[in-house]
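ugh ok fine here u go
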Amino acid sequence: MSRAQALLLAYAALSVAGFALYGLDKLQARQGGRRVSEARLHLLALLGGFGGAYLGLRVFHHKTQKPVFRAVLLAAALAHAAGWAWWWLS
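structure:
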C-alpha cells in the first residue's frame, strides 16, 4: 500500500468514525444516555474526520444550533487543505 493510499484510508476511517459518533451522540441525547464529549467530536474532526462529522451533522440534525461546530469543521477542512497544498507545492 502506498503512502497516499494509507492517508486516504485514514481519512476514510476517521470520517466513518466521525459520522458514527455524531449518530451515537444524537441517539444518546434522545435517550438521556451518556453523551460523547464535544471535545472528542472536535478532536476527531481536527484529526481528519471532518467529512464524516459534517455529514453526521447534516444527516442527524445534530449540533446544528451550535455555530462552533460548523466553525471547527470548516477550520479543520481548511487546515487539511492548506497542509495538502503546502505538501503538493513543496
